[in-house]
C-alpha cells in the first residue's frame, strides 16, 4: 500500500505550515509563537482537548476515536530550533538572525499537525490519540519537563511513538532498530588542584598541567582497554583550561568533556572509571582531583514489541523494501529517551533525501517526506487502535 492519498493531498498545506515555522524559529522553552500556532491549529481541527503550558511551553491535543473505548497512544513531535545562522539559501529561510530549524523539528511538528487534522476528521479508531508537541529537545530536556508535569498520567497515555528525519536516507524510506538507537549523553568537569610556583623551579610546586595531561591520556584507556570492543563508548575531553603566564606553574587546571554510551551498565562503569582515573592519576602526581559528573539525556531505548509494530506500519506505508530494521545506533542523543523510559514505544527515522546534515547551516527539512510522515502516524493510529 502506498502512502495515504489524503496525506499526499495535504502535502501542500502542511508544507505551508512547515515553511512558516521554518521562517520563525524559536529556541529551547521559548517556543511561544510556535506553541501558539500548534494550539490554534489543533483547536481548528476540532481536537477534543487542547492543553498548553505542559512542561512550560508544551502542547497536547487529544483526539477521541469514534469506534468506542480504548487506550490512549501518544505521538510526539519536537518544536524547537537551534542557535545557528542559516545558510540554506531557501526562500523560506529563517527571518531571525542566529536561529534556524537545522534539525527539522519544523517538519516533525508540521507532519504531526497534518496527522492530527486527518485523524480529527476521520476518527476511524477506538480509544484516543494524544498528539504531544514538546519544547526544548535541543539540550533543554523538554520531554522530561512534560513528564514531570504529569503528561503520562494526566492523559492516561499507555504507549509513545516518536519520529526523526534522517538526511542521507532516501525520501520514502524508513528505518529503526530494537534496543539502543541513540546514545546517553553525559558531561564531566575535572578540577585538578596542584600548587603554583616559579616555572623555573618545578620541584617546589605541584604541576597540575602535567597531571591534567596524564589524565587526558589515561581517560582514553576506558574505551581502548576496558570496554568490550563490540560495545560502544566515547570519552572526549573537549576543554582544558589552566595557567596565565609563561613563567608560572598554575594552581589548577580544569578539564571538561562528554561521555556517550549505548548501554546503561556501560554508562555506570564509565562514570566510575572517570572518577577513579582522574583521582588516582592526580594523586600519583601529588595533585588532587575533584570530579563532577552530570548525567544528560539517557539512552534512547526502543522497546521490542512496539518496535516490531512500528516496523510493520512503516512496511505498510512505504513497502517492504523501503524499511530497514538495522538502523545503525547513533552516538548523538535525543530526549524522547525520557518518554521511552516512562512508557513503552519506539523512535523511528524517516528519509530526508540527499540534504545537508542535521545541525548544519545549509540543512532544510525535505517537504517531499511529509506524506510519508503523515501516513505513518495515521496508519499507526488506525492499526494500534483498530476496533
Ligand atoms: Zn538536533
Ligand atoms: Zn532533532
Biggest sheet details:
8 strands, mixed
Bound heterogens, unique: zinc ion
- Structurally, the number of domains stands at 2
Average pLDDT for all residues: 97
Give the low-confidence spans: none
* CATH homologous superfamily classification of the largest domain: Zn peptidases
CATH C-level label of the largest domain: Alpha Beta
**What is the CATH architecture term of the largest domain?**
3-Layer(aba) Sandwich
CATH fold field value of the largest domain: Aminopeptidase
Strand content of the residues, in percent?
25-35%
Number of helices: 10
- Per DSSP E runs of 2 or more residues, the count of β-strands stands at 16
Q: Helical residue percent?
A: 25-40%
Overall structural class, as computed from helix and strand content, comes to: alpha/beta
Instruction: Using the CA coordinates, give the radius of gyration.
Output: 24 Å
First CA to last CA: what distance?
A: 20 Å
Polypeptide structure, described:
With 387 residues, the chain is α/β, with parallel strands linked by helices. It has two domains: 5-182 and 299-384, Zn peptidases (Aminopeptidase); 184-295, 2-Layer Sandwich (Alpha-Beta Plaits), CATH 3.30.70. It has helices at residues 5-23, 32-45, 105-122, 142-148, 151-155, 208-226, 264-284, 304-318, 336-342, 370-384; strands at 49-54, 58-64, 72-78, 128-134, 157-166, 174-175, 179-182, 184-193, 197-198, 233-242, 248-249, 252-261, 288-295, 300-302, 323-324, 345-351. The strands form four sheets. The chain has an eight-stranded mixed β-sheet, with helices on both faces. β1 (49-54) and β2 (58-64) form a beta hairpin. 50% of the residues are buried. The mean pLDDT is 97. The structure holds zinc ion (2 copies). One zinc ion is lined by residues 103, 105, 137, 164.
Amino acid at each position: 500500500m502506498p502512502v495515504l492519498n489524503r496525506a499526499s493531498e495535504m502535502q501542500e498545506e502542511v508544507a505551508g505550515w512547515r515553511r512558516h515555522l521554518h521562517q520563525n524559529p524559536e529556541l529551547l522553552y521559548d517556543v511561544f509563537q510556535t506553541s501558539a500556532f500548534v494550539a490554534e491549529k489543533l483547536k481548528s481541527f476540532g481536537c477534543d482537548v487542547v492543553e498548553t503550558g505542559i512542561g512550560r511551553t508544551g502542547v497536547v491535543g487529544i483526539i477521541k476515536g469514534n469506534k468506542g473505548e480504548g487506550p490512549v497512544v501518544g505521538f510526539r513531535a519536537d518544536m524547537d530550533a537551534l542557535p545557528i545562522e542559516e545558510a540554506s539559501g531557501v526562500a523560506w529561510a529563517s527571518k531571525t538572525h542566529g536561529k534556524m530549524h537545522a534539525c527539522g523539528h519544523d517538519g516533525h511538528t508540521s507532519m504531526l499537525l497534518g496527522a492530527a487534522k486527518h485523524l480529527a476528521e476521520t476518527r476511524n479508531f477506538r480509544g484516543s490519540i494524544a498528539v504531544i508537541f514538546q519544547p526544548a529537545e535541543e539540550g533543554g530536556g523538554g520531554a522530561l519537563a512534560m513528564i514531570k508535569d504529569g503528561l503520562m498520567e494526566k492523559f492516561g497515555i499507555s504507549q509513545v511513538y516518536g519520529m526523526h528525519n534522517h538526511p542521507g536516507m532516501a525520501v520514502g524510506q524508513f528505518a529503526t532498530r530494537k534496543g539502543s538507537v541513540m546514545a546517553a549523553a553525559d558531561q564531566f568537569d575535572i578540577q585538578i588542584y596542584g600548587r603554583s610556583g616559579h616555572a623555573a623551579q618545578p620541584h617546589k610546586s605541584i604541576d597540575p598541567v602535567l597531571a591534567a595531561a596524564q589524565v587526558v591520556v589515561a581517560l582514553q584507556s576506558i574505551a581502548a582497554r576496558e570496554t568490550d570492543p563490540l560495545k560502544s563508548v566515547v570519552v572526549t575531553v573537549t576543554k582544558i583550561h589552566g595557567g596565565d603566564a609563561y613563567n608560572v606553574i598554575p594552581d589548577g587546571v580544569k578539564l571538561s568533556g562528554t561521555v556517550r554510551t549505548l548501554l546503561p551498565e556501560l554508562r555506570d562503569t564509565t562514570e566510575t572509571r572517570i572518577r577513579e582515573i582522574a583521582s588516582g592519576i592526580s594523586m600519583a602526581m601529588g595533585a588532587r582531583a575533584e570530579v563532577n559528573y552530570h548525567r544528560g539525556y539517557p539512552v534512547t531505548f526502543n522497546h521490542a514489541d512496539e518496535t516490531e509494530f512500528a516496523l510493520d506500519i512503516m512496511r505498510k506505508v512505504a513497502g517492504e523494501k523501503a524499511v530497514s530494521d538495522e538502523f545503525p545506533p547513533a552516538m548523538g542523543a535525543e530526549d524522547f529517551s525520557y518518554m521511552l523510559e516512562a512508557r513503552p514505544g519506539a523512535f523511528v527515522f524517516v528519509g530526508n533525501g540527499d540534504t545537508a546534515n542535521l545541525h548544519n547551516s545549509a540543512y532544510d527539512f525535505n517537504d517531499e517526506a511529509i506524506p510519508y510522515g503523515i501516513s505513518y502516524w495515521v496508519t499507526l493510529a488506525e492499526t494500534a487502535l483498530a476496533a
